[in-house]
Amino acid sequence: MYGKPLRNARHIAEDLALTERVIVFNGAAIFDLDENKLLHSFRLDKAISESVYDHLMAAYPDVSAGFEAEDSWAIDVKRFEELKEMLRGPLPQVGDVRQLLHDGVIKLHFRHSHVSAMDLSEVLKDLPVYCTWHQNILLEVMAEGVNKARALAQVARAFQISPHEVAAFGDEHNDLEMIKWAGLGVAMGNANPQLKEIADIITLSNDEDGVSHILEHWL
């Protein structure tokens, strides 16, 4: 279960020797590693993507923008300058994001130098989209109704697993729905305060290997 795009999540999954399904893009896509095939994705309609972009640019003309598609991604020149020293793997298209938008977009993302992701999301509150973020820095916009819980429920049904048999770990805003849905929701010690309020268990922080602390206790 990753907020990350597939190109980044794939390496993590391989390191963990995961061989079946991964959920990526904050729940907007489900990918089968064994078959190297995208099983399902919740895409943004092009007209909605354009509306999201236009709303944010009208409110914050200096916001940087980009998007993720199933097998490609794109960012504007401003975002490229911010990321160019860290870019690895498949490189993005760089240019006018508005002109590059298409029906295959899975996730839009926006970053502002001094406006939080939460505040940016207020501009989109009347549009049919789902907004989330990690550390309140990068606003991520998916199709309406998309979240990690919805995708996790779909995978669980495929394997005939009920919610009460699922344990979920999280630390940020994009984990809220998943922690509520799972039979056992575990928040990291350094998690978003909202997440801690709804979690069944609070473990150690990410830096203290909080996930392994719980798993080793269970074993």
List keywords for this structure.
219 residues, alpha/beta, 6-stranded mixed sheet, 9 helices
Instruction: Compute the number of strand runs.
Output: 12
Helix content: 25-40%
List low-confidence stretches: none
Our estimate of the beta-strand percent is 15-25%
User: If helices are DSSP runs of H or I spanning 4 or more residues, what is the number of helices?
Assistant: 9
Order of helices and strands: HEEEHEEHEHEHEEHEHEHEH
Task: Report strand order across the widest sheet.
Answer: 6-5-4-7-9-8
Structural class assignment: alpha/beta
**Radius of gyration over all CA atoms, rounded:** 17 Å
End-to-end distance: 21 Å
Average the pLDDT over all residues and give the rounded result: 91
Overall morphology: globular
Largest sheet: 6 strands, mixed
Could you outline the blueprint of secondary structure elements for this entry?
Elements: H1 6-15, E1 21-24, E2 29-32, E3 37-41, H2 46-59, E4 64-69, E5 73-75, H3 77-83, E6 93-94, H4 97-100, E7 105-111, H5 117-122, E8 129-134, E9 138-143, H6 148-158, E10 167-170, H7 176-181, E11 184-187, H8 193-198, E12 201-202, H9 210-218
Parallel strand pairs: 5-6, 10-11, 11-12
Antiparallel strand pairs: 1-2, 2-3, 4-5, 4-7, 7-9, 8-9
